[in-house]
Amino acid sequence: MQLGDGRRFRGMTALVTGGSSGIGLGAARRLAAEGANVYLVGRDPWKVAAAIEAVQRDALPGAQVDGGVADVTDPAAMDQAVTAARALGVRLDVLVAAAGIDGEGKDALDLDPESFSRVLDVNVRGLLLASQSAARAMTEDGAGGSVVLVASVNAFQAERRFADYNASKGAAVLLARSLAIDLADRGIRVNAICPGYVRTPMTEPYLADPATLAEIVRHIPLGRVSDPDEIAATR
Fold first, then answer.
1. What was the pLDDT predicted at 69?
2. CA-to-CA distance for 146 and 96, rounded, in angstroms?
3. Contact by Cβ (8 Å): 136, 180
4. What mean pLDDT value characterizes the chain?
5. pLDDT of 185-204, one tens digit each?
6. Element (H, E) at 67
7. Whether residue 165 lies in the annotated active site
8. Are 164 and 115 spatial neighbours (Cβ–Cβ below 8 Å)?
9. CA trace torsion 199, 85, 70, 114 (10° rounding)
10. pTM of the prediction?
11. Which residue, among 136, 142, 124, has the nearest Cα to 192 in the 3D structure?
């Protein structure tokens, strides 16, 4: 598939969290295909290495691609990721914060409080820490930048047995709105994208079950789930 349709990001540098799979990997591939230097981070070193190779194959000639293992809930790790990303180019222009985890898939009364906290830690606090580190770098020269948080349609329509995930994505949307207000005067645009079901490693266990897939697709006007490349192409 031809990912890039131009050179919109040529000369720019992007950091992608959750960049080793799913929507994050799709975003990293698209950015590199349109000329951006891309630094991606993930939790699994093997997946990160494979993702770097995949993104390099799609990259526009001259675009630099690298990555590393990082915990998005660790402020120091996010600062280090930003520093590594900036080293690929002149400055950090774009952050795509796509790192996230699934909920337990249990009735709300059966949720484990520790697991609930972990979902919020990664899906909300992780977005905040990545945004803080990136925005501080973007303000140093006054040139601003763009921050994109990956949320979900679950922010607006609760899905049964996903109270933890629903809550985290609702918080992600309000976080994006709050960051947009606070960072506007520094020339930093902040947006959240809210996909429905996308075919990723996280959703594959659900989509692999024919009955579950049929129920999911029944609520989608196009009659199918999307793929990461479609989300990455969002303008």
1. 98
2. 8
3. no
4. 95
5. 999 999 999 999 899 988 98
6. strand 65-69
7. yes
8. yes
9. -70
10. 0.95
11. 124
